[in-house]
């Protein structure tokens, strides 16, 4: 019996169907081990030696894998074909004690032919790819580990910084500031609406009119000529031909961009759906930066197009990837069975599959041939242009219902048209567009920041950590002026002036920086510019590629990065605490300063100073719909005119109950209990509601022995001990209601050591998050 180890249980089931009874297929369920906790897990002084630890939730699985490996005639490592998959194969080889010549296979699609071909062409683990992935993990660990404590000390509300996420936040922040500084200029666009027999024709003036005076003069001139009997005629006809070519098959990045644009999917939704399709054997590997297709798949696509649409619709193409660091050995994302029109177990997967299939087929279809017609229409005083396009041969557009066309009737020079109306409408320049998830992925790819498998993680992290959010605004109303010349049959032509309302500045679904994201960006730009520098981040990606190619070494890349970076971190104590406070003005009654500030829980208002010796300041939440930059002094003064906090609500079980607020949000205090009230207003909450919340809090305390408690929290039951952050999760096989004090103390004693940060300048790193596959992932 041969044992084949893959990453995913879903993939294991699919593969087992094809390989038959001679193979046992098991899954590692992602990473089997990760960089260990502790201050010396990564040791720069020892050539960046790394200690790895088995993930606690993988110990049982590892035992099962080892037992199966010992019993097998042969072990084959079949993890994903990217660098992370290669690293997982290496870790499995190490922890299972497999020989260095253990067979390693890769396949781009989960089909019977691909699997059998992979089994016949094994190799060994590629150490260069492994070293590249290890270097990436160590780099991200060091940046998050050494820089995050600096952020905590120096940036109010700061959480962390990261090698890839910080430049992504910077892009969003810079774009928002471009928009804020943008001064929109207005102009007037002139559009004429004509009829010719039963046809309707729209024509525009080529040049916008700079102001309302020009618009009035233009319209008055046309009216005057109309009153004198002028006619609109075709003065010139221009016809040109052109072609429109299909797009290349999808890479990971272009799939995320298109799914965001066409389906409204986030990068994370797209990757989850794509992974499910791949594991079910429905599409090829979904983490790729190549646009090429295999010769065999091109032949299948050509045959399909010829049978479905005819020979003229087929045009064989092989695309070349332009993205930085692309790996042409991989293949683009495509269906594994082209004839299968629909696939997927839910709407998300089915829609994504349809998108992939259509793009794949279209990439091998003929160009669309177009005929473009331009009519110059004049009244003897001004010229307007009507532009139309007719599809001569639809080519690949046949897949897209023929595409959009703006056909014009056939007209000759001298043809007379009837003017129905002429409109001069005020327009405004558009500011730079805010990023969507799709356009941010495109920008990151252009800059060479990150790699296909990291984009979804980057976008999720910067939103999860409240550096960036998705807007929900529908825009604000804006008045525009309209001058319309109406030419109603049987009535004299006349000009009407009116004001209309349109909405502008809608940000729904767009990426907006949170105040803490802006403050962190400014701090890093001033003191750790290297971390945010686009060129530096892209260069690191190139160097990681060079490790994989054998052109650079693990040690060389890490040492070149670490020495200058560590010097910056060592000098961080000299940096003053970064004050992102916005001084709004002075409260007139007290003469105290009012600030809008950022804390760990977001923006808040402060009345008074924080310095020692000053009277204790008062705090208020930022008014709804406002933030650090938009709140005004008047709004802040009004907020502080509310009753002062803490506010006594009454008594519960003989203990006074207070509602209060602070930098971390509103809360209730009674006896030893502090209860967060995120959804309540401390100024209006009633004693009755407070009684409900206190009862809920007390009910969550399953046992109380004074300094030791068992509490049922949002993520399940846990033991809380004396001191700060002294708690431990209760094992699943233990009943929290039946635990004794002695057993609770033992759970606290046995808990894994808390991930800690060393003092400044200490060697090694310890902090790691779990990535999509359970390994070490960058801090944001």
Rg from Cα = 33 Å
- Give the integer mean of the pLDDT values: 88
- Count the E strands: 32
Quaternary structure type: single chain
- Give the fraction of residues assigned to helices: 25-40%
* Major sheet size, sense and barrel closure: 8 strands, antiparallel
Number of helices: 20
What percentage of the residues does DSSP assign to strands (E)? 15-25%
Record the SSE blueprint:
Blueprint: E1 2-6, H1 9-19, E2 23-27, E3 33-35, E4 42-43, E5 49-50, E6 52-54, H2 59-71, E7 74-77, H3 83-95, E8 103-104, H4 112-120, H5 127-154, H6 165-181, E9 186-196, E10 199-204, H7 212-227, E11 232-244, H8 252-263, H9 267-279, H10 295-309, H11 347-363, E12 368-378, E13 383-393, E14 416-428, H12 437-447, H13 455-464, E15 468-470, E16 476-486, E17 494-504, E18 511-513, H14 515-527, H15 529-532, H16 534-549, H17 554-570, E19 582-586, E20 593-599, E21 602-607, E22 618-621, H18 633-640, E23 647-652, E24 655-660, E25 667-670, E26 673-676, H19 687-700, E27 701-704, E28 709-713, E29 716-720, E30 727-729, H20 741-750, E31 769-770, E32 776-777
Parallel strand pairs: 1-2, 1-7, 7-8
Antiparallel strand pairs: 3-6, 4-5, 9-10, 9-14, 11-12, 11-14, 12-13, 14-16, 15-18, 16-17, 19-20, 20-21, 21-22, 23-24, 24-25, 25-26, 27-28, 28-29, 29-30, 31-32
Helix pairs in contact: 3-5, 5-16, 5-17, 6-13, 8-12, 9-11, 9-13
């Amino acid at each position: 019996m041969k044992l084949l180890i893959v990453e995913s249980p879903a993939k294991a089931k699919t593969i087992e169907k094809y390989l038959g009874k001679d193979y046992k297929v098991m899954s590692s369920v992602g990473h089997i081990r990760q960089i260990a906790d502790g201050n010396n897990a990564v040791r720069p002084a020892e050539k960046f030696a790394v200690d790895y630890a088995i993930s606690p939730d993988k110990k049982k699985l590892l035992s099962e894998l080892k037992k199966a490996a010992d019993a097998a005639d042969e072990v084959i490592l079949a993890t994903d074909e990217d660098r992370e998959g290669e690293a997982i194969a290496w870790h499995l080889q190490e922890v299972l004690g497999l020989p260095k010549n253990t067979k390693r296979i890769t396949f781009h699609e989960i089909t019977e032919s691909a699997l059998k071909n992979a089994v016949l062409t094994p190799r060994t683990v590629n150490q260069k790819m492994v070293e590249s992935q290890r270097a990436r993990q160590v780099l991200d660990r060091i940046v998050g580990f050494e820089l995050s404590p600096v952020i905590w000390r120096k940036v109010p509300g700061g959480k962390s910084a990261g090698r890839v996420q910080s430049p992504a936040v910077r892009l969003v922040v810079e774009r928002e500031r471009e928009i804020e500084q943008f001064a929109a200029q207005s102009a007037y666009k002139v559009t004429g609406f004509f009829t010719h027999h039963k046809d309707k024709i729209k024509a525009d003036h080529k040049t916008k009119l700079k102001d309302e005076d020009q618009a009035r003069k233009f319209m008055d001139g046309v009216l005057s000529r109309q009153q004198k009997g002028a006619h609109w005629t075709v003065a010139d006809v221009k016809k040109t031909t052109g072609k429109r070519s299909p797009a290349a098959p999808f890479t990971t990045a272009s799939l995320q961009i298109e799914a965001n644009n066409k389906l409204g999917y986030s990068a994370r939704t797209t990757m989850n759906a794509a992974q499910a399709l791949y594991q079910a054997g429905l599409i090829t590997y979904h983490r790729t930066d190549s646009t090429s297709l295999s010769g065999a798949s091109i032949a299948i696509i050509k045959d399909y197009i010829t049978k479905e649409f005819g020979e003229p619709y087929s045009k064989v193409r092989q695309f070349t990837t332009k993205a930085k660091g692309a790996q042409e050995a991989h293949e683009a994302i495509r269906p594994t069975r082209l004839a299968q029109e629909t696939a997927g177990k839910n709407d998300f997967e089915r829609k994504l599959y349809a998108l992939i299939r259509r793009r794949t087929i279209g990439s091998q279809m003929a160009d669309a041939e177009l005929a473009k017609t331009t009519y110059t229409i004049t009244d003897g005083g001004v010229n307007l242009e009507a532009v139309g396009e007719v599809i001569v041969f639809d080519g690949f557009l046949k897949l897209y219902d023929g595409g959009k066309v703006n056909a014009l009737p056939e007209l000759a020079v001298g043809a007379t048209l009837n003017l129905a109306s002429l409109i001069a409408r005020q327009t405004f320049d558009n500011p730079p567009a805010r990023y969507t998830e799709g356009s941010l992925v495109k920008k990151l790819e252009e800059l060479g920041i990150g790699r296909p498998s990291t984009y979804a993680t980057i976008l999720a992290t910067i939103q999860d950590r409240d550096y960036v959010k998705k807007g929900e605004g529908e825009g604000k109303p804006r008045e525009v002026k309209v001058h319309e010349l109406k030419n109603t049959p049987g009535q004299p032509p006349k000009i009407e002036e009116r004001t209309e309302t349109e909405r502008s500045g809608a940000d729904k679904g767009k990426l907006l920086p949170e105040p803490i994201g802006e403050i962190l960006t400014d701090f890093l730009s001033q003191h750790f510019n290297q971390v945010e520098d686009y060129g530096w981040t892209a260069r690191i990606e190139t160097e990681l590629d060079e490790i994989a190619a054998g052109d650079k070494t693990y040690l060389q890349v890490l040492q070149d990065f670490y020495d200058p970076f560590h010097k910056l971190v060592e000098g961080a104590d000299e940096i003053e605490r970064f004050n992102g406070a916005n001084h709004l003005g002075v409260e007139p009654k007290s003469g105290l300063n009012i600030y809008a500030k950022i804390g760990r829980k977001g923006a808040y208002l402060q009345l008074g100073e924080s310095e020692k010796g000053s009277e204790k300041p008062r705090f208020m939440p930022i008014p709804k719909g406002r933030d650090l930059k938009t709140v005004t002094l008047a709004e802040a003064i009004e907020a502080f005119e509310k009753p002062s906090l803490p506010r006594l609500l009454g008594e519960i079980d003989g203990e006074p109950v207070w509602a209060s607020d602070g930098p971390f949000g509103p809360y209730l205090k009674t006896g030893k209990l502090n209860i967060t009230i995120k959804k309540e207003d401390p100024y209006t909450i009633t004693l009755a509601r407070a009684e409900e919340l206190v009862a809920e809090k007390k009910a969550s305390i399953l046992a109380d022995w004074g300094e030791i408690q068992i509490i049922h929290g949002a993520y399940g039951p846990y033991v809380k001990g004396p001191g700060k952050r002294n708690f431990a999760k209760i094992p699943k096989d233990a009943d929290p209601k039946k635990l004794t004090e002695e057993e609770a103390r033992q759970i606290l004693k046995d808990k894994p050591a808390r991930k800690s940060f060393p003092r400044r300048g200490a060697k090694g790193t310890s902090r790691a998050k779990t990535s999509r596959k359970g390994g070490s992932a960058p801090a944001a």
